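FORM 7B: Structural annotation worksheet

SECTION A. Query
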Amino acid sequence: MQILDGKIVAKKIRSSVKRELFELKEKLGLAVILVGENPASKIYVAKKEKVAKRLGFNSYNFCLPSNTTKALLINLIHRLNSDDTIHGILLQLPLPEHLNPKDFYHQIVPHKDIDGFHPTNVGKLHLEIPALYPCTPIGVIALLKYYNIQIEGQNIVMIGRSNLVGKPLAQLLSNHEGSVSILHHKTKDLKDFTKNADIIITACGDPKFFNSSYLGRPCSLIDIGINRLEDGSICGDMDYQDMIKSKYCKAITPVPGGIGPLTIASLMNNTLKAFKLFKDSI
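SECTION B. Predicted structure
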């Protein structure tokens, strides 16, 4: 049984980005917009800023109050779209309840959309055209490749169908010739799928719901879930301690330390990629 350490892969990605930035001899700008006072979001934004500055980016945080209007937020996004010193824009989610994320996905211009949520980038993902793809899915692919876990021809179960992770990851795995089944809370008989899977990925936000009873053959387990328990501890969607005892667990990501570090590293790589894609299009 192998522990899939995302920190190792993230470090490799960051090192590559830092080297390319140094060779560019040009400061790239990363803008992060935070609306409200969500504690987890504030911690995450601070982590992004720390990594960005360490790699050599100019990092800018735009912190707006919880009562920010739709019009004001769109105005800020449009200003950043027009700013030549900004090469990547990220709108930190979740937003306050009165703001619908879907109203903003298309506001960030595609070549600065480092989260990969603009309809143009979503369409290019499906058409397998080079573009900016969502960071967590990119991180998962990087992890699988690093540990030589075959995707092509494998039965892959994706539990979770969010627009941010589940759907784009399923598409990306399909683009890599995987045979992907997307499961969700209305799927009947989950075990009929999971017991025949080569790779199982969870991204549903249900703490430790997925245990070894769902396994029926040797498989690799990727846990994208990040759930905070009442005691303040962090866990994934999988019951990690139960899984590592199973004879069917070939490999597994820990939480924390699995996919989380790869999401931030992929964000940095997407900012560099945004600059290169735009430069090549001129």
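SECTION C. Observations
The mean pLDDT is 96. Residues 260-281 form the longest helix (22 residues).

SECTION D. Sign-off
Analyst initials: ____
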